[in-house]
Design brief:
single chain, alpha+beta, four-stranded mixed β-sheet, globular, about 55% helix
Length: about 375
């Protein structure tokens, strides 16, 4: 059950989303004046059962919307990486993802687990240079001890060291992923069907947004860039991701072990080989070399124009288990302790009970129920 303050904030959130004034909703509910609703929304007056039924009816939702601990109800802040996704489809998917996050937070707390994401400090703002963004990405890779192939460890380290939930999910077509902030919990959603190199890049990109959310709030839909300011934030995120996934020390070791060929004609083979090594795209590797001054901008443009540099790694994508082990372990513990029913768990995840059993197998856990 949610607190009375949460109920108040959910009423206000949904009223504003429906674009209703306090006067309009008060009239529909049957309050004598706007002040009654204002007192409820501000937490100064509790709403009784009959009033909640009337408010729910007026706003077109079930009463459970205001009390369900598995409902975010506008609490989370999302920033989506997507292309050409209809607003209705994105809204519906955000609601579904919100239920995953709310369920994880609620059940983890009931199990006595800490739900408190930690964030590193990065010295970046909208006036920062792209070189500074690369350097901060590089510094974060060192601070998190991501090793010689940061793409391999980033997801695990974010969950284990920073308490940031990383969920690999099946998305609507056009959605690459999202960064999300809610009370004490940060999360990144990644489309598990994307190429492996793209998944790593998206994760590093969304980490930038989580680290800089207060000083550079991202837009809800990253593709909607109405001004140069927001476009620059996205460019800073790209450069941060480049530095994080291809740290300078790692790149210098690669160049010492296998120097870049002298002939421009043979650059592409070397670039593709090193990109596969670091599990990034060949295009990202090429522009990182440009950033380091190893390849000229003119040479990079010639390689791109001739189609010699692939946008994605040549490696076949590895099968990625749904959600994450941390997330699934919480579900497993909650089911084992009787904190949630099998049917309710399947309902929150929007999957058949048979698929729920298979989800535990994917994460090398025995299903805590019989089919």
């Amino acid at each position: 059950m949610t607190s009375s303050s949460s109920i108040s904030s959910r009423i206000r959130y949904l009223r504003e989303r429906r674009e209703l004034s306090q006067e309009a909703l008060s009239e529909q509910v049957g309050f004598k004046d706007r002040q009654t609703l204002s007192s409820i929304e501000n937490g100064h007056r509790k709403v009784d059962a009959a009033e909640m039924v009337a408010i729910a009816r007026a706003l077109g939702v079930k009463v459970s919307y205001f009390t369900d601990p598995f409902e975010l109800a506008g609490e989370g802040r999302f920033s989506w990486r997507q292309r050409d996704v209809a607003t209705e489809a994105l809204d519906a998917y955000e609601n579904k993802a919100g239920r995953w996050l709310a369920a994880y937070r609620h059940l983890a707390r009931q199990l006595g687990r800490s739900v408190n994401s930690k964030m590193l400090r990065v010295a970046l703002d909208k006036k920062s240079s792209f070189e500074e963004a690369v350097a901060e990405g590089d510094a974060v890779a060192r601070a998190l001890e991501l090793g010689d192939v940061p793409a391999q460890r980033l997801s695990q380290v974010l969950e284990e060291l920073l308490g940031t939930l990383v969920l690999y999910v099946d998305t609507e077509p056009g959605i690459s992923g999202a960064a999300c902030q809610l009370s004490q919990l940060n999360c990144v959603l990644i489309n598990r069907a994307e190429p492996q190199a793209r998944q790593a890049y998206d994760l590093a990109h969304e980490l930038f947004h989580l680290l800089t959310w207060e000083q550079m709030p991202p837009q809800r839909i990253e593709g909607d860039i109405p001004d140069a300011s927001h476009k620059r934030v996205e460019q800073l995120a790209e450069n941060f991701a480049s530095g994080l996934l291809m740290p300078t020390a790692v790149m210098e070791r690669l160049l010492r072990a296998e120097p870049l060929p002298a002939e421009e004609e043979t650059y592409s083979r070397w670039i593709s080989a090193q990109a596969d090594r670091l599990e990034v795209s060949a295009s990202a590797m090429m522009w990182r070399l440009v950033n380091m001054g190893v390849i000229s901008v003119a040479a990079a443009k010639r390689l791109s124009e001739r189609g010699l540099i692939a946008g994605s790694s040549r490696r076949q994508p590895k099968p990625v288990a749904r959600f994450s082990r941390v997330f699934v372990q919480v579900l497993h513990g909650a089911l084992t302790d009787g904190l949630i029913s099998v049917r309710r768990t399947a309902e929150v995840l929007q999957m058949p009970i048979e698929d729920l059993a298979e989800l535990f197998v994917e994460h090398r856990l025995d299903a805590p129920f019989d089919l």
